[in-house]
Structures
1.
Amino acid sequence: MTREVRTVSFDADLKVEAYRFEGIMQKFPNHFHDYYVIGFIEQGKRHLLCKNEEYIIGGGDVVIFNPNDPHACEQLDGNTLDYRCINIQPDVMRQYVLEITGTEYLPCFTPTVLFRSELAVTLHDLHLMIMEGQPDFQKEEWFLLLLEQLLREYTDVDTPCSSQEPAAEIKMICEYIESHIAQSITLDHLSQLTGLSKYHLLRSFTRQKGISPYSYLTTIRINHAKRLLEQGMPPIDVAFQTGFSDQSHFTNFFKKLIGLTPKQYARIFLHETGSQRSADITA
């Protein structure tokens, strides 16, 4: 049986998360994050769907997801996936962009995939520094230089990091879901709220947001659950606070989208001291 390793670290110097998945076959359904993801494939071949564009990605390819970019992926070649990524919260990205450019804004990275990119080597070395908790001088220098190159080569300052403004009804649905995540939400209720038929609502929402209403709700719940776990709330309470019927239901959805169980993710936030905290989960 293939040895599966899932490692997650939080670096308090850079204020970023670093994930490493080794030997996994997990399929990730359509979802999004409320933060930036800069990752690369070490080994494995995957089919990636992002913002309705399809890609075949493999070793040496770099992927970049902006906040709220819907994406899904699954293995193609029957072999396992080795993958590393760095996650950057928007407020952290905003501060780094100000440091680098002198202007405070949220960038929109335009390519989703950088095929066979030389940046994969830089990302790999930086990722190792974060995972190993190395001193912040060289680590911060490499991180700033990496972001500077990405900003210079793969963004357009005139393009804000947001998609086209959704229709009023779709915006209403998003706002309702985001403010009622702990409650039971039905398609019937959303239809009554907007005056749209259920079918038209479903098609319009999916077309404009790139994700179905139910998947949007689940993703919002999981993103909120991450923040509660980071604050030390027990998983069983987080499940209740985010609208899941029970802890088992919550755990299944969390691992499906994040790649870790809630307990595994929360483990890195148990100790507040030190500049780097991590959890290594082997199966």
Note: The mean pLDDT is 89.
2.
Amino acid sequence: MPRFATIDVGTNSVLLLVAERTPEGRFEPVLERAEITRLGRGVDATRRLSAEGMEATLSVLESFAREAREAGAQDIAVSATSAARDASNGPEFLAAAKARAGVTVEIISGQMEAELSFAAVHADFASESAGPLLVLDIGGGSTEFIYGNPAGHVDFRHSFDVGAVRMTERFVSSDPLSSENRARIQAHLRDTFKALPPPPPDAALVGVAGTVTTLYAVQHAIDPYVAERVHGGSLSLGELTALVDRLCQMPVEERRTLPGMQPKRADVIPAGALILLESVKALGLEGCRVSDRGLRWGLLAHRFGAGAARS
């Protein structure tokens, strides 16, 4: 069966997926990798990718592209999101990626990011939900909301410039977070999310990306991380509220040691957790489902699915 790969270069992390396309058009994962490289460090303030962030990301990109080819991938699609969109020196990063990893990185819009994340969630969760699906994609630099119907049509999508890294750099000045730091983040998020339209009746919310999966893994002490134990799980509003309180009151070094925590994510997880909590509250819901399959899966279907192969 033919194999294809996608690499999702985000503000905080880089994710690799290599999958086989079955004769029925489904994709079965062969290899998955994730590394936190913090490409978007400082971008909110400087509007430039730092030399350190670019070097760490390019090094991982080289390694992931090599692994994908060794695993038999016929083609590799690479996307970059918020940090690369916002940075004035994004073209420099794209040129270096081509030279060092032999891949063409496409900087996708927030709207396309939302579409791809929804496609990935719809493929896995539509059969479980009789009503509309809401998708929440919390990244390092931006957060996407997508409302869609059971048939897979997107009715609303919007990308907000709030992400775990961006909120941490903008508002966090103490360790652990002071009550003032937390209050400023929450006030900013509540003001931002006022722009959201009310969700349709009987809608189910699914959260994707590393913040959501990490929070579920910490809540259930899943260590080492096992995607099958995380994908399809649920976090209630009560669980989220207690977990946010716990993470915000804990020093970063203590957070790093929590079962289920990626150590490199520990500094930005309180801000990410607050984004999830305030999102659930803004939507008037009682919790969310958890998806381990985000943009990289949507990109896989978009670029290498049966319909794409025929076009």
Note: The mean pLDDT is 92.
3.
Amino acid sequence: MKTFRLSRIALVAFAAFLWPVLGAEAAGSRIKDIASLQSGRDNQLIGYGLIVGLQGTGDSLRSSPFTDQSMRAMLQNLGISTQGGQSNAKNVAAVMVTANLPPFSSPGSRIDATVSSLGDATSLRGGTLVMTSLTGADGQIYAVAQGSVIVSGFNAQGQAASVQEGITTSGRVPNGAIIERELPSKFKDSVNLVLQLRNPDFTTAIRIADTVNAYAKATYGGPIAESRDSQEVVVQKPRTADLARLMADIENLQVETDSPAKVVINERTGTIVIGADVRVSKVAVSYGTLTVQVTETPQVIQPEPFSRGQTAIQDQTDIMAAKTGDKIAIVEGPDLRTLVAGLNNIGVKPDGIIAILQGIKSAGALQAELVLQ
């Protein structure tokens, strides 16, 4: 017997039927939690290297000729001649090495590096990354990586079966990259601070500028902050101020954030997130789920006695369709708690909430942005 549930959405995987109320009132947040310093961003580094010491899980040199070329070049740089010989080693793998250079990092400090296989290696477990230069977008070398590779995944296989968990062709080298060059710009060389909001919003940007100006009037005697747009707030450095101390004071100021009303729906995972400012005009909602049940009961047919017939199987299929959930309810949501209670009063399971919200939006009654992922 096979049962199919025909619905517009996938099963909503919620831990509980009732959603928790997502903060009825907004609370103040520190500026450091809602904005970042423009000059304090990461810089991406990239390099090409070799991993050695693998237990027969490296690249096939015939299928990955660049691995053979890289290995020969490395040996020649070490003073070892490779002329006239062929290698069938399976303990070497070519990888791309990536890392993020933190802001204000200094030479000698260490950062993590990530390695990812380029060839047909099956596993990087147990390997060691050979010295690899990491360059930035300007082509300059900013770090050098080397060390043992940590791989979280594993695989095991036999003659007729295999099992794998996670990814075995990528891994990390913890603290494996040493910074050799610092960024050309200095923090204290700046004449101002540019704060970038992680969630752009004009209201929040204005509140940040007002909060900083209120602090500056009490400390320096005048305003120093200005909101450029919904994402950037520029803070001018007072002549008598230390830039690092000024940033430390500003990033701990409390600001009440604001955000547009949104409903985020992920139909693949069945996740629904409703913002605190979502409102729903009064609408009537009816939701029904169509269930189709298909039952297969094949019958065996025997031939007549003393006949030359053969035993056969005759198919027999019974199909039953049923529709449930025929209630009609009035839904109105002046606040989040009332909205959630109204949706639950319809009497359907959570797998119908996504379809209901999409229908309410189509009817123009959902006063929020509907984001589908």
Note: Residues 45 and 177 are 11 Å apart (CA to CA).
4.
Amino acid sequence: MVAQEDLYRKVFVFRKDPSDAYVVLRAKLEQPLQNFTVCLRSYTDLTRPYSLFSYATKAQDNEILLFKPKPGEYRFYVGGRFVTFRVPQSIAESEHVCASWESATGIVGFWFNGKPWPRKGLQRGYTVGPAPSWHCGTGGDHKPSGDNKAPAFLGGLGWASMRAAYQSLRLPPAVMAWKSLSYEVKGDVVVKPRLREALGP
């Protein structure tokens, strides 16, 4: 069943491990993407590989994929190819991650807990296909090509924003807004307030 609600300061909680649970995000996108930014906040004690966000089309499973193969490392895929960002290792700590890509230059920007990492190049001139399937917290078929099926995320996962001070790009209006998100839950996932809000001031 598709739901639409304001999820500001709320998270999806994936409760079981191992899990095949995920959330399908609903957004109309009929034109190819020339650039994009995705920002997420996650909270987990997992040390195994997992996917946080995927954008798949009929032609390409990994049009966009944010994947964490192990603590201290993120892989960001565009069109089936990826760049790696190494970050401080942390377990059971909240992590805020933003990744951006633009076709004209192939530049990938990456921010970890508000701090920019050195930019890298990936798929210059590539166009991300339209009519996507957007998933978050997914194991499913949305995994790096050639890898074994990655179990789904376990823990709390929420959309996040990027402060303008941390980036030099002017971003277009959001395709998916957390304050009016249309989504469908698959498996054992519940919506809860972020821990900070649940505990009070």
Note: The chain has a mean pLDDT of 79.
